[in-house]
C-alpha cells in the first residue's frame, strides 16, 4: 500500500474549506481513504493528518495520541472548550519547522466514526491541540494563520529557502 502524495504547503487547496461527508457517501471509499491517510501520516512521521493535505476536500482527519490510541474523525466538530494555552506544533505540510500557537487546553469533540456512528470524546493537552490543528485544515486554516505575522513570515521564509516555493 503506497502512501498518498502530500500537496505543497503553498497549494491553494489548503486554503479552501472542505465539504461534509454525507451519510449517503460511499463509506467503503471513505474507509479506504482513511486507511491510506493513516499510512501517509506514519510514513511522514506525523501524529495528525487531514484530508485536504492529501488533496481531498472532505472533512476527515486522523490523529495519533502517542499513547496507543488512534482516531479517525469524520465531520469533527468542537462542541465545548476551556481556556487557551501555549502550544508547540509541527505540521506535515511544513516539514522541518516548529511553530507556536495558542490552543484550547480541553475540548469536547463530536464526530462520526468509520461506521458512521456519532461519537463524542473529551481530550486535553497535546492531543487536544492536535485535533484543533487538523480541524483548522478542514476550514482552510494553516497553523501559520494562528501565529503572529512576524512568526508566520519567518516560517514561510524558511520554507521558501528550504524548498524554493
Ligand atoms: Zn497541519
Q: Name the structural class.
A: alpha+beta
Mean pLDDT: 94
Beta strand count: 7
> What molecules are bound to this protein?
zinc ion
Name the CATH superfamily classification: Peptide deformylase
CATH architecture descriptor text: Alpha-Beta Complex
The CATH class assignment is Alpha Beta
The backbone outline, from C-alpha atoms, is globular
Ranges where pLDDT stays below 50 over 5 or more residues in a row are none
Strand order in the largest sheet: 1-2-3-6-7
What is the CA-based Rg, rounded?
A: 15 Å
Written as H for each helix and E for each strand, in order along the chain, the element string is: HEEEEEEEHH
Count of discrete alpha- or pi-helical segments spanning 4 or more residues: 3
Largest sheet: 5 strands, antiparallel
Tell me the number of structural domains.
Answer: 1
Describe, in plain words, how this protein is organized in 3D:
The protein has helices spanning 27-43, 126-138, 149-163, and strands at residues 48-50, 60-64, 70-81, 84-89, 99-104, 106-112, 118-124. It has 165 residues and is α+β, with helices and mostly antiparallel strands. It has one domain: Alpha-Beta Complex (Peptide Deformylase), CATH 3.90.45. Strand 2 (60-64) and strand 3 form a beta hairpin. The chain is globular, with a radius of gyration of 15 Å. The two termini are 29 Å apart. The model has no long low-confidence stretch (mean pLDDT 94). The structure holds zinc ion. Zinc ion binds next to helix 2.
Task: Jot down its keywords.
165 residues; alpha+beta; Peptide Deformylase; 5-stranded antiparallel beta sheet; two-stranded antiparallel ribbon; 27% helix
